[in-house]
Predict the 3D structure of the following.
Amino acid sequence: MEILGTQVIRPPRAKGRGGRWVGHLLAGVVLLVATALLASWVHVQSITYRYRYSQAYRMQKKRVQIHEALEIERQMLRRPQRITQIAENELGMILPKVEDRVILE
């Protein structure tokens, strides 16, 4: 660069250097790759969460079925006829007859 008086004279740029378009192309490629990686990550996360949701839904459905079956069984076991049947058949217990009763005073 030469200074002549108060005017600054710069040499002309060489035309064969490339320059800005290479930087823009590189920035575009980097942005495209980053976008593709982000989209892939979001897709994988979506599939993972759908799988987990499906598993949790199946487990909840199975638990509800078990709960309903246990509730029915509980209701059946609370009936007095069922309690009497279990006591007589499985435990060998019988209701005492009137003459077998003892009154304590």
